[in-house]
């Protein structure tokens, strides 16, 4: 294949797609460049693995740190397991591509995207999604694409707030909206949103902007590349679908009874009845022959596998029919009805914040921990390193769905659901100026039957309020599903069950407050949605989340007035940045000494902001005083509680703060005559002194006498001397009197 490329200006920068130069043994390969960022994406199609009955699509995205001239950290200077950003990008690649393959297609499709160049401003996650789709389009796979992915931000300009297509990293610093949008010729099929309470109508306008200005021209560009390079025609090959005869046998056997079984309201009872019907079909119509030739046994085994698929397909069609044509949901609710909700904040006594949230058969226990800057999560990658002061971790153990599954670390699903809940709550987290704590939420799903990520949002918001975090507004999340009848009638349902997600066409999750949207995630199995339908879904989701917010506020109306007694108290002190070195001391000796004496943690920022964390209020105040003394400019008139560190004949040296001493002359130790410094103070004594002078060289003169009341019988002179003088004067007067008679 000769080298072929196409390019077009997208969002003010050139998008270039090239094929035919590298990775020529792959089924399809594209080198995609946007400004100075480049991603290489490959796609390989292979024969299906024996025995599988699902579509084994693999999407992989890796950031080569050499792309930005960086080295991996740690002992092994090699990229390791994918980080969270890479995992989330893999999910963004998979979700819009997977639904565009036909049912029954089970060939291996493996997409790999490597970042080869990164300019530090044009991020490569959305570029990789587009490049991966383009690579699939160059193969003979039956892909109903291409898919284009763009990011939309909103920033303030002289002309007001404007949408920006594929905003740079610098522009995103000033954007209140982070919208990632995927679409193809038939509509939009993937949405990811993180927003700062942006109005529903504004988000809808942003989706329309991204579709018209980004997705449509990029789709045209990929189609142009496919045509220019002479890509092969699509070849689906044999599809793994039930034979018509098998499908009809299953339908004739159980259709009417399966319709009734799908109307049973209880999940356990419904699943048991459906399981009985499945077993009956398998036993009566597709039993495996005993003592038969291998060929006959193998054919019967294949028919039995097709029968399982046929039963699942029939159950899916019945579910669509009941919802779309008759408005009957599995648990008997109305189309917009939300399952019963039970909530309790403060469920655990020793956590900084906690909450129990249950909606129907979905249940989450959320705990909140508050910490200092040392608890920040450092994120390193191709973009400049930064620290996260708020993060949420989501756990989905096997027991929450009644299974004894493998116990392991978080997978892609856990990472993705946690990121959605985190993004949804980030929009209501206060600024660090108002609340300087690092916040960690952990959502443990203990029961699951639909939208556990939205339960994490609701439970997480309650846990934040229970922890005393001054959030901006109450935030809740809800999911909306979609069902289409045989005649094309579309119905949307609120608060979907797990099986409504499985059998339905859509899981559209929307989180937000009364003011606007904070998070969205759309997973779509249908071909695509148009903007008008998304607007209808927004209205239905808003109605649902407002109902949940009202119920949440009836349990806990606002954040608690104070944080937990077990949480560290953070005291903020501002010092001169030039004094930071003095606070830290040689080799960190000074700051370590303060922390050891007070039991507090101290974090120092470059601008001179010092954050003191302490669970002991008295020690926190002592730590604050020491930090202020170290960082403050010594001024005349200031009073300190000092410590005597040296005694001389002429006075005492008193430590005002670690590394800062002043001299109190013997004449300033007390009123009257002081014979010896040791008569007044000794090394180690605590002394309250006042600064009476700071000379040009920085030497500090102190006075203890200035803080003492003067003697009642004189002007502050030596009392003994005055008595002696008085006696001398009295003697002379007595003598005068004695001489008078003579």
Structural features, described:
By secondary structure, the protein is α+β, with helices and mostly antiparallel strands. Helices cover 33% and strands 28% of the residues. The strands form six sheets. The protein has an eight-stranded antiparallel β-sheet, sandwiched between helices. α1 (84-97) crosses α8 and α4 packs across α11. It is elongated and about 120 Å long. The termini are far apart.
Quickly give the structural class. Answer: alpha+beta
- Mean pLDDT comes to 90
- Uncertain segments are 716-742
Q: Give me the side-by-side strand order of the main sheet.
A: 8-7-9-10-21-20-18-19
| Total of DSSP H or I helical runs spanning 4+ residues | 15
- Rg result: 37 Å
Morphology call: elongated
Helix share, percent: 25-40%
Largest sheet data: 8 strands, antiparallel
- DSSP strand (E) fraction? 25-35%
Concise account of the structure shown:
This protein is an alpha+beta fold and 742 residues long. It has 15 helices and 29 strands.
What brief labels describe this structure?
alpha+beta; six-stranded mixed sheet; 33% helix
Write the layout of secondary structure elements.
Blueprint: E1 4-10, E2 13-19, E3 28-34, E4 37-46, E5 57-63, H1 84-97, E6 108-117, H2 125-137, E7 148-157, E8 160-165, H3 169-172, E9 177-184, E10 187-198, H4 200-229, H5 244-261, H6 267-285, H7 294-326, E11 341-345, E12 353-359, E13 362-371, E14 377-379, E15 386-388, E16 390-395, H8 412-426, E17 438-447, H9 452-466, E18 476-484, E19 490-494, H10 498-503, E20 506-512, E21 517-524, H11 531-555, E22 569-574, H12 580-584, H13 589-598, E23 601-604, E24 609-614, H14 617-631, E25 639-647, E26 651-657, E27 660-665, E28 686-694, E29 700-703, H15 719-739
Parallel strand pairs: 5-6, 16-17, 27-29
Antiparallel strand pairs: 1-2, 2-3, 3-4, 4-6, 7-8, 7-9, 9-10, 10-21, 11-12, 12-13, 13-17, 14-15, 18-19, 18-20, 20-21, 22-24, 23-24, 25-26, 25-28, 26-27, 28-29
